[in-house]
Amino acid sequence: MCTVLFFKTIDHHCPFMNNCIAKRNHLFFFLFLLFSTLLFVLVIAVFVLRMVQNPDMTGGILGGAVAIVSLILGCYAGCMLFSHVYLIFAGATTNEIIRGRWDDANPFNLGCCRNCAEFCCRDRGPSIIRQKSQSLGV
What gap in Å lies between CA 33 and CA 81, rounded to an integer? Predict the structure, then answer.
């Protein structure tokens, strides 16, 4: 686990990226999910297009294996992408949704449009890594 999980803007620790997803990198994590999903969709679309155009030459076993792996990973990345779209629209973090932080309404929800604008355009703040290294005299 990361040693900086005490910040209030933390979203979650991602075991696949071995990194905390927080205020400074949440947008980049979202873009990673978006482009990964698009890549998997593109690979599957090219495979299906090749099958339709030339059924005798589908890419063999390797092409089929790549298409199946892309389908599985694409479904996973797509589900993650849509869950993060929901989180952005709701103005919440993964931990807040899982733990059910609020009994009533989310106090950080500014409405769908303002939540999206806040997510995309907010100030990322100073780097924590530089502050830690400076305080250690490195």
Answer: 6
- Enter the pTM of the model: 0.73
In order of 6, 113, 135, the CA distances from 132 in angstroms are 14, 35, 5
Tell me if residue 138 falls in helix, strand or coil.
coil
Q: How far apart are CA 6 and CA 51, in angstroms?
A: 51
Q: What does the DSSP 8-state code read for residue 120? A: H
Per-residue pLDDT tens over the stretch 4-42 = 544 556 666 777 777 777 777 788 888 999 999 999 999
Give residue 20's Cα distance to chain centre. 12
Of the residues 2, 14, 113, 116, only one is catalytic, namely 14
d(CA 33, CA 40): 11
Q: Report which residue type is found at 48.
A: V
* Residue 14 annotated to the active site: yes
Q: Are strands 12-14 and 19-21 parallel, antiparallel or unpaired?
A: antiparallel
**Ramachandran region of residue 137, left (φ > 0), alpha (ψ -120 to 50) or beta?**
left
